[in-house]
Design brief:
- This protein has 6 helices and 5 strands, in the order H-E-E-H-E-E-H-E-H-H-H.
- The protein is an alpha+beta fold.
- The chain has one domain: 2-Layer Sandwich (rbstp2171), CATH 3.30.2220.
- A 3-stranded antiparallel β-sheet has the order 1-2-5. A two-stranded antiparallel sheet has the order 3-4.
- A hairpin with a 6-residue loop joins strand 3 and strand 4.
- The protein is globular.
- The two termini are 14 Å apart.
Length: 137
């Protein structure tokens, strides 16, 4: 019997959605959008806010950054070839940053959903318990 570590390593737990159409970008083309692993989400969450302390009367300065284009670039695949649409992440971010905010935001929300980042902790635990129970014999 495989160890728990081996079972976790082999788990196919990252969701995807096929047949995503973006007619404004590529009429007739089909995309695969994937969820992202937890490390990518943690990196994204950690990069959203940046606090800088300056020795002045102004105190602390905080800036917010949006990196939705980066998340979409990491998750958008050509369904036919199975290859990333943007293997060069910087180029992908540059291109997507100049595209429709509504489309990029919609794709970002889909990636977020596929990554289970749109559910609270209680929902995630309930889902994991249901999946675990279904896998037992």
């Amino acid at each position: 019997m495989a160890s728990l570590k081996d079972l976790i390593r082999a788990a196919q737990d990252i969701k995807h959605q096929d047949d995503v159409e973006i007619p404004e970008w590529a009429p007739g083309a089909r995309f695969r959008v994937t969820g992202l692993p937890s490390g990518d989400w943690e990196q994204y969450q950690n990069s959203l806010t940046k606090m800088t302390r300056r020795d002045s009367a102004d105190g602390i300065e905080m800036s917010l950054k949006s990196r939705k284009a980066e998340i979409v670039a990491k998750a958008l695949y050509d369904q036919e070839s199975g290859e990333l649409v943007f293997p060069d992440l910087r180029e992908g971010i540059s291109i997507l940053s100049k595209r429709s905010g509504g489309i990029v935001n919609g794709l970002f929300n889909l990636v977020r959903h596929l990554s289970d980042e749109d559910r609270d902790f209680t929902q995630k635990v309930a889902s994991a318990e249901a999946d675990f129970g279904a896998g037992q014999s």
